[in-house]
């Protein structure tokens, strides 16, 4: 059974940082493109970032470029999203995703809430 389990969400003040983690199981992690999507309140889901199998190629939405960093550790079947300089508009449920094509949307985690507010 494929499982993607996110953690690390929470409440943070504007300008603060959070690191999200996603632990994968049930598939060959190293062979999948992995990514993050988010769904702000009252809005549709949107792409945030993705990372290819060899970690050499990463992709970011324009809204997070320069502030967020995606990474993966295939030895631990774990993916990360380091989020810096957070803004209120980053408030959303963040989802870990995996797939064989870009952007990865075959498998989804349950989501973790990130709230940026003073």
Q: In a nutshell, what does this entry contain?
A:
Helix content is 0%, strand content 50%.
Strand content: over 45%
Please give the share of residues in helix: under 10%
Report the span from N to C terminus.
40 Å
Morphology? globular
Low-confidence stretches: none
- Mind telling me the C-alpha Rg? 13 Å
What profile does the largest beta sheet have? 7 strands, mixed
Calculate the mean pLDDT score and round it.
96
User: Which structural class do the helices and strands define?
Assistant: mainly beta
User: What's the number of helices?
Assistant: 0
Strand tally is 11
Task: Walk me through this protein's architecture.
0% of the residues lie in helices and 50% in strands. With 118 residues, the protein is mainly β. The strands form two sheets. Strands 2, 4, 5, 6, 9, 10 and 11 form a seven-stranded mixed β-sheet that branches. The chain has a four-stranded antiparallel β-sheet with strand order 1-3-8-7, with no helix packed on it. A hairpin with a 4-residue loop joins strand 7 (68-73) and strand 8. It is globular.
Question: Which features characterize this protein?
Answer:
globular, seven-stranded mixed beta sheet, mainly beta, 118 residues
What is the strand and helix layout of this fold?
Elements: E1 3-7, E2 10-12, E3 18-25, E4 33-39, E5 46-51, E6 58-60, E7 68-73, E8 78-83, E9 92-99, E10 107-108, E11 112-116
Parallel strand pairs: 2-11
Antiparallel strand pairs: 1-3, 3-8, 4-5, 4-9, 5-6, 7-8, 9-10, 9-11
């Amino acid at each position: 059974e494929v499982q993607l389990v996110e953690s690390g969400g929470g409440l943070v003040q504007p300008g603060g940082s959070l690191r999200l983690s996603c632990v994968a199981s049930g598939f060959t992690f190293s062979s999948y493109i992995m990514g993050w999507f988010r769904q702000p309140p009252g809005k549709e889901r949107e792409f945030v970032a993705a990372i290819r199998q060899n970690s050499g190629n990463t992709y970011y939405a324009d809204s997070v470029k320069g502030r967020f960093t995606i990474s993966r550790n295939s030895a631990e079947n774990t993916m990360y999203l380091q989020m810096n300089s957070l803004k209120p508009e980053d408030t959303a449920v963040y989802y870990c995703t995996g797939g064989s094509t870009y952007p990865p949307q075959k498998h989804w985690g349950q989501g973790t809430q990130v709230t940026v507010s003073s």
